């Protein structure tokens, strides 16, 4: 545990008048302005934690580390995407970094924030450290507070197991803390989306860019680094793994059944993004028209598959982001 209470200079609330339940320009500018001081604060807190660690106290250290992480940054009232509250609840157990069990027996998945899961090669008796850090951090964030389950209009509310697929807000008095935004901003989870749940994707990706730029949490490890589209061998080894890939689009091809975003001249071996014909309509009229991607540097996210070379199948535009070149803030994390 920390030797002495540690108080961070970061402000805990956005500018007055900023709604806590929807995105706003003022909130985003506030986070950008305070980001550097918060980074330094977090590093100081974690340094104090390391120096006061007791030998052989692995589990206790992980818990104290999670406590230090959230104590160093007082809860911020995040501006989130447009959502509607369904209910409030009490959490009985944090199962992992993205799954909760409620007191009434119901389950909740924090949709949009992908916490680490133990890889197939992990044979340890104890939980995989990145996964355990995420679980303990979420547990510390929620504490004994009530939580609010919120949903974007038109999106599915439950998965096939009956669990709520919710945007989770931790209620602390009049303050609402967006759990997904908090976990991703601190580098404890990655932003992801799928066609049934994408309303909050761009907001969460903005928090992930912030975490990557500061090399927070997961982004200190090469296991979670953004891979270049030309790193075909490395991508091929990550089949079935969620991955962020960045590269310059060489061309966009189209057949009756598929569209292909190509990053190399050899479609038999190079990395490709594939879009089914039935999913093209989601890209039309969006911020990411497929026919305008050639020559642009983009960042793609999804699970790596294999179709000749490595492939990510994209079902919605939020999986692809156009990035600035040069001078992208987190370019140093690309491999």
Kindly describe this structure.
There is one protein chain. This protein has helices spanning 25-51, 58-72, 129-142, 179-185, 201-213, 232-236, 280-283; strands at residues 84-96, 99-102, 107-110, 113-114, 146-151, 164-172, 175-178, 190-191, 227-228, 242-248, 251-254, 258-262, 272-276, 297-307, 309-313, 320-322. With 335 residues, the protein is an alpha+beta fold. The chain has two domains: 84-220, OB fold (Dihydrolipoamide Acetyltransferase, E2P) (Beta Barrel), CATH 2.40.50; 225-333, OB fold (Dihydrolipoamide Acetyltransferase, E2P). Strands 9, 10, 11, 12, 13, 14, 15 and 16 form an eight-stranded mixed beta sheet that branches. It is globular, with a radius of gyration of 20 Å.
DSSP E strands, number: 16
CATH architecture of the largest domain, by name, is Beta Barrel
Strand content: 25-35%
**Derived structural class:** alpha+beta
What is the string of SSEs from the N terminus onward? HHEEEEHEEEHEHEHEEEEHEEE
Give the % helix: 25-40%
Q: Regarding CATH, which class of the largest domain?
A: Mainly Beta
- State mean pLDDT (0 to 100 scale): 78
**Mind describing the biggest β-sheet?**
8 strands, mixed
Unreliable spans:
1-79, 326-332
Radius of gyration from the CA trace?
A: 20 Å
In one word, what is the shape? globular
Under CATH, the topology of the largest domain can be stated as OB fold (Dihydrolipoamide Acetyltransferase, E2P)
Number of domains: 2
Output the number of helix runs: 7
For the terminal residues, how far apart are their CA atoms?
A: 35 Å
């Amino acid at each position: 545990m920390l030797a002495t209470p540690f108080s961070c200079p970061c402000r805990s609330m956005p500018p007055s008048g900023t709604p806590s339940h929807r995105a706003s320009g003022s909130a985003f500018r506030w986070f950008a302005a305070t980001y550097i001081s918060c980074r330094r604060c977090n590093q100081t807190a974690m340094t104090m934690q390391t120096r006061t660690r007791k030998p052989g106290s692995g589990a206790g250290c992980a818990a104290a580390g999670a406590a230090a992480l959230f104590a160093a940054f007082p809860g911020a009232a995040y501006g989130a995407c447009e959502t509607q509250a369904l209910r409030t609840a009490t959490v009985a157990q944090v199962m992992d970094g993205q799954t909760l069990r409620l007191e009434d027996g119901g389950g909740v998945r924090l949709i949009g924030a992908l916490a680490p899961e133990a890889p197939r090669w992990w044979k340890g008796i104890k939980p995989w450290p990145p996964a355990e850090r995420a679980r303990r951090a979420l547990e510390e964030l929620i504490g004994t507070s009530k939580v609010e389950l919120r949903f974007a209009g038109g999106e599915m509310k439950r998965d096939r197991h009956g669990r709520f697929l919710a945007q989770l807000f931790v209620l602390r008095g009049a303050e609402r803390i967006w759990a997904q935004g908090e976990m991703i901003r601190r580098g404890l989870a990655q932003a992801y989306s799928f066609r049934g749940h994408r309303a909050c994707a761009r907001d969460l990706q903005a928090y992930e860019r912030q975490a990557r730029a500061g090399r927070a949490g997961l982004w200190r490890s090469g296991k979670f680094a953004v891979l270049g589209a030309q790193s075909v061998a490395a991508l091929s080894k990550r089949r079935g793994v969620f991955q962020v890939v960045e590269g310059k689009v060489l061309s966009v091809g189209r057949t009756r059944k598929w569209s292909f975003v190509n990053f190399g001249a050899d479609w038999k071996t190079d990395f490709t993004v594939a879009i089914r014909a039935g999913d093209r309509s989601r890209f039309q009229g969006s911020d990411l028209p497929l026919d305008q991607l050639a020559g642009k540097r983009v960042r793609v996210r999804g699970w790596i598959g294999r179709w000749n070379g490595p492939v990510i199948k994209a079902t919605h535009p939020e999986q692809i982001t156009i990035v600035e070149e040069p001078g992208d803030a987190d370019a140093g994390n690309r491999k």
